[in-house]
């Protein structure tokens, strides 16, 4: 028995003692294969899941490494049955492989005939496979490659896809650099791919398809550009919204040898198809007379690479179309693979497994993202508001708590404590945000704000012309505001962990003067607002961020929230 920070239990839960001197080392060591479930103050609970273990296996970690990690950091002997289960679960990955047969084309192979027999007997695989080639091989129609991978994951036998990819239409793309500049004045002197970005590109390319997980502000766009340069082909980039599409275009023009004429935008207002085409999820999932009328974009060119920005947000129709894109290289980019709908297995099977994952604190320690101070400010509701809340219907309770009028005063006090900072106020409910915009005399950006006006306000914020900005959830993702150093969250999408991570990410780009970023969550005490806040914080707690709790009444003191 060692004095380790972990307690590994037979129900596949792993407890981490946060205050243990080796806690940070243990957190990093188990991150590739364990998923955080709960993160209160002193003991965090992780869970070993099949998907987490398969992701680790696909990333090159074997069962021996996982077992040794658990044994090394465990305070008590690790249950023997659990160690066997870990090894057997990881051993399921790759027992089936998709490959290219010289005569029969795409096939499903297995050296374990019983496993192949088991999956072929399932009704779920009916219609997805064809004739038997031999006892270890069965023909798969190329159009069913993605659908079969989905089914095999659900059957507990994830296939390793070794069938390769079509080359796609060639289109030269290179990273601009001091030795390969676009123009002598355009390239920043410090521009070169950071070591972790290069590792992420290599990990993706070696695996062929998959997901790269990097903190907000750590340069996921650069990883995308690096993958495009590696591919040297036409590329389809799918993004969350039009503002994000234009940021991608601007960054690609600045960071690569691509010109504006080579990059098309396929959104609500434009329908351009060029060697590099940036399309929004919204336009691709728009139905006309019950038909997804824009999916022909997928066949418009012989794409060599399909890139998914914010892959954790993929809507269901994009999953379905991705099932048909298995012969194309696919790269997903995200800050967190957490999906509140539980469809992480579809990201795994259709985009690919996690190929690179950098803990937030590691990137912070290297100076590439700003350190962050996270504070939960708890507001006690007045008696009459508590009674209204107590007697409200369940479906109304969150909105009542999240939009408590007292939050306006709290936000004003926090803003007053940061007179020299660029401050974002972020929320879910438009009437609440309109009130805050008026209280703070700050511009408001919502879904109704035109793209041109959004871009104007974002640019004014970047330049320092305005220092306060109130934004709805349209600013959760893919918005580049480097000098934002304070974010105040007043309401959100219930208990969404990925939204919490994205909102913190708005202020994590490193600051010119090296100062700390501040993230405030204003929460109504003794309500579902407080319950949801605890759930929202789980992913960030896994990354090593601890929330200090401050009572709203204490904000009067000048340094109470600093």
UniProtKB/TrEMBL annotation:
Q: Which InterPro entries match?
A: ATP-dep_DNA_Helicase, ERCC3_RAD25_C, Helicase/UvrB_N, Helicase_ATP-bd, Helicase_C-like, P-loop_NTPase, XPB/Ssl2_N
Q: Print the keywords alphabetically.
A: ATP-binding, Helicase, Hydrolase, Isomerase, Nucleotide-binding
CDD domains annotated for this entry?
SF2_C_XPB
Is Amino-acid biosynthesis a UniProt keyword of this protein?
A: no
Domain Helicase C-terminal per the UniProt entry, residue ranges: 410-556
Q: What region holds the Helicase ATP-binding domain? A: 201-355
The protein's matches in SMART domains, at most eight in alphabetical order, are given as: DEXDc (SM00487), HELICc (SM00490)
What are the EC numbers? 5.6.2.4
* Catalytic activity field: Couples ATP hydrolysis with the unwinding of duplex DNA by translocating in the 3'-5' direction; ATP + H2O = ADP + phosphate + H(+)
Molecular function in Gene Ontology: 3'-5' DNA helicase activity; ATP binding; DNA binding; hydrolase activity
- Family the entry assigns: Belongs to the helicase family. RAD25/XPB subfamily.
Protein name as it appears in the record: DNA 3'-5' helicase
The record lists the organism as Krasilnikoviella flava
